[in-house]
Amino acid sequence: MAWRPSVRSDAFDVALAVVLGALAALSLYVGGDPFLTAPELADYSRPWGIACLAVLHLALAVRRRYPLVVAVVVTAAFLPVRFLDIPEFQVVSVSLFIAIYSAGAYGGIRRHAVRGVIAAAIGVLVVWTVLRDPFRPYEGRIPLELLNAFTAAVNVFYVAAAWMLGDLVRTRRQREAQLEVQAAVLEEAHEERARRAVLAERIRIARELHDVVAHHVSVMGVQAGAARRVLDGRPEAVPELLGSIEDASRQAVAELHRLLGFLRSDDEVDGTGPQPSLARLDELVGHMRDAGLSVELTVDGPVEPVPAGIDLSAFRIVQEALTNTLKHGGPGSHAAVAVARREAALEVIVTDDGAGSAQPAVDGAAANGHGLVGMRERVALHGGELRTGEVGSGFEVRAWFPVGARPAAVEA
Hints:
This protein is an alpha+beta fold. Helices cover 64% and strands 9% of the residues. It has twelve helices and five strands. A five-stranded mixed beta sheet has the order 1-2-3-5-4. Strand 4 (385-391) and strand 5 form a beta hairpin. The radius of gyration is 45 Å and the shape is rod-shaped.
């Protein structure tokens, strides 16, 4: 991510250029005064010295907006300071370091381009240092060639360190920006997962409430309608029907208590009562027969053990299908429930003949209600398949759940 300039950064760069320019001018004045320094240092081209210092520090005012251009200009202005023996070396060296550092920190270009510019500047400095008046005797015991080589090494380290420091700062800034982006993406993903989890939980609660309430309320509604119809003709049958309604209401309340206890618990297993499962299909079929629905139950093979989620879902599908039969077919309908354990699947089939005394569903309400939506959700949750449709005058629900291989039969 490239650095973006601002009014504050521009003001800082201008102030820095002014301060360094003023210090360089003061240093040049002191270094060029014959009364304050050696006479041979005062003998330099003053127009060139002033021009070089002016160009060098004016360029620093835009060092972060045009870092590579500034590095080239500052290097080009710095070389005459060395070539012409202008008596100001301390401040311009700091300015050169800042310019090369800025190229590394704010370049925003490919690194090999910056390396090329730095290598060119280093090459010029090295050549000038090594070839500069090589035959001039050095006062001391150190050979001039060794001193030149040492000076060249110092220049190489100086320039390379400036760029490497800037490049390190830029890399760190980019890494921080990437981490911020990644943190934002992770936060967004976390919120999305939380939203989906809440939605899934709401759907699960709604599905369970529908399965629990719809079944028992439908039974009570059918029984209440039957009681109303026989109230005048067969009043002796009313107490039995009212007893069935009472039993259904108690079962509905017990199921709701069990469900609420499960939802309030932190555990995955509900310990407040027996879980609905295929092992309790006989009870379900008995309740439906008491409500006036003729039900035939067929179990093919050992349906247990199966995963608890599939066991509950299969039971709920049978319960919902029989409830729909009672609701839309009414007493007198006949339903057949078949549960079969295949090699690697559990299959549940519920069919009815639609020959009861209730009015038929209007506009396909039986096929398009929330009950079948809940069935599809339960089957899809386990990677299964659900097929529903009319069969003759009745309706069929066929659910298929993938499970492990059928357990081997145990010989007596």
